[in-house]
């Protein structure tokens, strides 16, 4: 457990006012986001069969919550970590066309998460995915999509200011693009997290690109599952977050693997055994569309826009009693 307590923290909104703001932010953002990216809302599963290979393996060490079902024999069912792969199959299954996409409310359990101001065992995000052409699998497409998402987030700042002027946290006017290698070259003696803090403090908001593969040092900036994002065409949207004096990640996203990238990255990750799964076979055989997609944290966005000190102020989850007590002593009211 790691907890940051801001000095003289003032939540500004009561718990009930905060609940009103959460509802407003979530409903308004998803409507604006869907319009901006041409996405339709779909219902999505909370669990999938392990044998499909559809679950997100995250960094490869986190264990999903699993169980069996009465009518499914001895098949292992897993609570999703995210819907990164499921969405791509859904686009094919439901007949989405070129430049059409979907978004969904994704709820997950990540029981191995290290709990702190940003991280919870409960995950709530907008998972989204959009069809693109093979020729659009490039940095221009990636950057243009990032700018569209930033535009919606920035617009939300103004919407929240209109409704809750006493509480809105002001955001920078521009997003900058930086690669993990550029950060390593510039800050060789810092850890990856320290590099993210340094660059976001300087620039306000960055899209940190090319996460998952090894840099010149032979180290990775951060882990990324090898079978959904193309590591050369992905990244995280990071804001400098003054209330906690560090960066905050709002979105992880990228252009998805084609057959070549899938085989290459699975080999690098020593995970070629996954090629047997139905999802991976669909990618290899060209049976799913080329796509771009990602996740946007719902609670993280509410936290950012309202200047909250802890994600537990904008979502109901479980926290160690020590953390609850320490937060309460400092006017941080966990739901």
TrEMBL record:
**What HAMAP family does the entry give?**
AsnA
Q: Which pathway or pathways does this protein act in?
A: Amino-acid biosynthesis; L-asparagine biosynthesis; L-asparagine from L-aspartate (ammonia route): step 1/1
| Catalytic activity line of the entry | L-aspartate + NH4(+) + ATP = L-asparagine + AMP + diphosphate + H(+)
Protein name as it appears in the record: Aspartate--ammonia ligase
**Phylogenetic lineage:** Bacteria, Bacillati, Bacillota, Bacilli, Lactobacillales
Which enzyme type, at the first EC level?
ligase
Q: Which species is listed as the source?
A: Secundilactobacillus similis DSM 23365 = JCM 2765
Q: Where in the cell is it found?
A: Cytoplasm
Q: Where does it sit, as one GO cellular component term?
A: cytosol
- List the coiled-coil residues: none
